[in-house]
Task: structure prediction
Amino acid sequence: MQRILLVEDEAAIREAEAAYLRSAGYEVLEVGDGAAALQAFERVAPHAVVLDLSLPGVDGLDVCRALRRFSHVPIMMVTARTSEIDELLGLEIGADDYLKKPFNPRLLVARVQALLRRAGSRPLKVGRFVVEPDKLLVLKDSEPIALTTTQFNIFYRLLAHPGLVLSREQLLDAAHDHDPGRREVFDRTIDAHIKAIRKRIEDEPARPRYLQTVIGRGYRFVEQADA
Ligand code: CA
Result:
């Protein structure tokens, strides 16, 4: 199930949006301010973020900028103001789309679905690596690397969040439909996939620089191990 982080300080609006997103099949994590949004992001590694622009404390612009320092997650900004649209979608802020308030929550669902569809096939370039989901293609220094679809999905998810630690559970979610009843088996499955990916992408698979283990927490992709 895909997870949406929903950041909106007006409870009535947030609850209505969350209800529509849930009925469309998404898991929704609701938070009411920017600081909580940043904390929640690290914890749940959502597939997309719906982010209100005007928030108490850390506002939506700052949340968006902060997320963009380490994540390519699709971000939908929600705002009553339209004067800042160019800036919102520009490189400095880095939102992917926006919705002007007020709107019918059905429209939000449709736009989030479209955003996730686009994001799932968006090419990424991180350091020496390029990944192109529509071709299941990974390039390292412009040379193709062969990965299975499952390995590709795991690698893509890690690469989409450089530096962020993803748990085995989050990586399983990326690789397959999640089945909590088979957690222990799955944990080992992820370790095996990581080992296989390392063989393909690392200069020295026994001493991984890019795909790092974070003991007790999971794995992360690091653009440059020495940086
Ligand atoms: Ca607001």
In short: The helical segments are 11-23, 34-44, 60-68, 85-89, 105-120, 149-159, 168-175, 183-201. The two ends are 34 Å apart (CA to CA). The pocket of calcium ion is lined by residues 9-10, 52, 54-55 (CB under 6 Å). Residues 3-120 form a domain with the Rossmann fold fold (CATH 3.40.50.2300).
